[in-house]
Amino acid sequence: MPDTMPENTNRSPDGLTRPSKATVMWTMASLCLSVLLSALDLTIVTTAMPSIVGTFQAAAGYTWVGGAYTLANAAVTPVWGTVADIWGRKPVILMAIAVFLVGSLLCALAHTMNVLLVGRVIQGLGGSGIGIMVNIIISDLFSLRDRGLYLAITSLVWAVGSAIGPVLGGVFATKLSWRWCFWINLPVGVVSFAVLLRCLKVPSPKTPMAAGLKAIDWAGILLMVGGALMILLALDLGDVVYTWSSATVLCLLVFGVLSMGLFAVNEYKIARNPVIPLWLFSSPTKAAPYVVFACNNYVFIGLAYYLPLYAQAVLGASALTSGLYLLPLIVSGALAAAAAGLYMQQSGRYRPVMYIAQGLLLLGTGLLIGLHFETALARLLIFQTLAGIGVGMNLDPPILAAQAATTVRDTAAVTATMSFVRSLATAVAVVVGGVVFQNEMAAAQGALVAQLGGALASGFDGDLAAANVEQIARLPAPQRLLVRRTYFQALRMVWVMYVAFAGLASLLTLLIRAHTLRRENEGPVLGVDRARPDGAPAEPGNEMDSVGRSENGSGGD
């Protein structure tokens, strides 16, 4: 249990104790710096990859420099929540930052591709912890009523970092060295570490190392990390290194799913302190926020990945210009997240935000289907802005809805599970979108062969289509027009698939119950004895939850 409470606090006119403004300012500044680090590292290497591969003369590393980070980042996500519940938030986020900085230093000094990949794995482990712990700490520091605003601020920083990452990577690669993509993390990370060490005041249990290690659900961690890695690795390798029907990919998928099944059994029947408590999904209304969150991230990542392909293949834009065309999606989403957070703080309601957001997301993605080949660029930018607003408004409400539906003891588990769901949705979105696109391009091969000839048309077949976009501009005008129309039709089916997921999220939003986002805040339940003495989980429906009402209580909308 906590041995200290936050030291720097003020009592507001309504009688509630909150962190002082200075504490909030310094803490949020350091948390935002941490988020910026994690976001930058996710995208900064994309434009520096040719320089990195050229330095090591290792073409095979092109895929793995990005994949090593994302695989490690996704696989261990829920583990950080478990560790933070046992030993407290502050030491765990400091450890995550330290791990991230060690990985960054290793990458910056790397003289072989293998060393660089090891550094990227270490970075991914630390980056995962940073992302999780920032959201958990915000949830601990602020009430449900206030935390939406602060979560939105970090979402805004994440969006900005993700957007400027490729730009910085390109500048470093061309003007300095690609190694600066990693050197830049060190001063920023050290400042964030120092400020958090000095200013972060959160409860911390004095858990002995031996007792903490004994309390960890090791079987669950091994099954979950192993299963997630096998599934994500299969998605990463499928149709890139191996065919989908290859023994390697099929074995990874089968054993990955089997491991996740055993993980579910372990969490439900055996684990006393489960990594992902299955009672979080004990009813459709409790499970709905996670599925909505997954679907929305699925659509967002899919659009962010395939809209630049549309701009290059159909509109004839350069790689740089296609990135600029994506800014309306990212900027509108970031601003919408901040506006939604402010509304929820003032009103204490999240369902109206979710309803409006899902409507805009469904509208924006649906309008993409109706685009005509000759459609002006302005319409494309408007449609993706609508989708961006819809995604941005709904970045944080599902998290608040899930937290409000359970007890304060599960805050870290809810947050970590949401991040894990997002990681899986991100990986699957790109792969499934690629399968749809490649199948459509393969189906159009007959028409392309008739007009271009077999040799030329084969360059736009299936998995080669996305890689050979630059070849379109070299074709004679009539053939170029035909190929661009083919890409247009193939991508239209990709939009149809994403609209289906946006529609599913809209329907499931109706299942989410309303809870008043109260201003009172409860401290986290930490330590090794978080489960009830009989080993059964606390039932939110039988005790007062973190919003001060039972799960069967009336809503606040």
UniProtKB/TrEMBL annotation:
Annotated transmembrane regions: 24-49, 61-80, 92-111, 117-137, 149-171, 177-197, 218-235, 241-266, 287-307, 319-343, 355-373, 493-512
Membrane topology: Multi-pass membrane protein
Keyword annotations: Membrane, Transmembrane, Transmembrane helix
CDD domains, per the entry: MFS_Azr1_MDR_like (cd17502)
Any one GO cellular component localisation term in the record: plasma membrane
Superkingdom, taxonomy of origin: Eukaryota
Xref: SUPFAM superfamilies: MFS general substrate transporter (SSF103473)
Pfam families from the UniProt entry: MFS_1 (PF07690)
Renumbered residue ranges of the record's region Disordered: 525-557
Domain Major facilitator superfamily (MFS) profile stretches: 27-517
A GO molecular-function descriptor: transmembrane transporter activity
Intracellular or extracellular location(s): Membrane
Family: Belongs to the major facilitator superfamily. TCR/Tet family.
Protein name as it appears in the record: MFS transporter
Originating species: Aspergillus indologenus CBS 114.80
